[in-house]
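Provenance and format

Records in this collection were gathered into a single text stream. Each protein contributes a sequence line and a token line. The two records reproduced below are adjacent in the stream.
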Amino acid sequence: MAVMVVTGASSGIGRAVAEMALADGWQVACIARREDRLREVALLGDGIALPCDVRSEAAVEAAFTAVMERFGRIDVLFNNAGIFPRGALIDDVSLAEWQEVVDVNLTGMFLCARAAFVRMRAQTPQGGRIINNGSIAGQVPRPMSLAYSVTKHAINGMTKQMALDGRGLNIATGQVDIGNARTDLAAQMEKGVPQADGSVRPEPMMDVREAARAVMHMASLPPGANVLQMTVMATEMPFVGRG
């Protein structure tokens, strides 16, 4: 039975992926800060709830050690935990706000990827798959989203570097860029969000389960195949040509 680790599994896209993986028969380690919500997900199948702040090196290492103790290996990491800060121009972004986004969206993803990589490298059979949750903001930014956009651009580089470094170790790394999936975090988009032309307009959304299906497709590929980067988005969202 295959083992998947999902970070940010207590809500949104992470929860949708964890629930779908459990329904498909995966063993799933659910990682996030909210233990009560994690337990709701883990109880849907052969899952384990591991409360963890991905900003903490010690907490991440303890969580991944617990995964190995419970399941014996890690086949897939969906590296998903992230935050979206308030909208602001650069001169209205405090150092504390900037650092919080970098700590979660970049350093947290690095810590989780590193924890998975070292275990995939050492386990028998060797290898596994890491799927980083990037963002369409890593391709084309939204107005007033500096810290988020910068961290997601950085994930583009992380994914490519890990895909390169995983060669010869049977570790495939890919990235999914998701646009306008309907979650609590993205609910505001249906009410109206700033556009590049200065207007504020509602944007089309898609069911979050479509994003989860895209991740599950990547997760289910055979070892010899990899999706390096996939964009899945609401069909009519203003992304192509944004700017």
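Adjacent record:
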Amino acid sequence: MAPYQDDLNTLLAKLQAIAQTGNYYAKDVFDQQRYTELADVTTKLAIKFGASDQQAKLFVDADFGYVTPKVDVRAVTFIDDQLLLVQERAGGTWSIPGGWADLGYSAGEIAVKETRE
């Protein structure tokens, strides 16, 4: 496989992940339509650039919800010798900052990103 193909595959996977996750969390029908359209365009691009029928089917039959294998990444963060805690939206409990792993990022990059968010 040519080096540019790896980059294209990664970009297509990221687009599909954005579409799938966005569609799951979309608050209104218009956003859901936009994310569905993004998923359709991603599938068409995959086929245009040589995805096999089996590979393209992975885009069409995508799972719902968050794209990654549901890996939660957390970061222990101290500020002036105090532990940073965040209140979770679901349930209102307190925990260290973190969230679902995003496609294409290392665990360290996700920990930094989630702590900032």
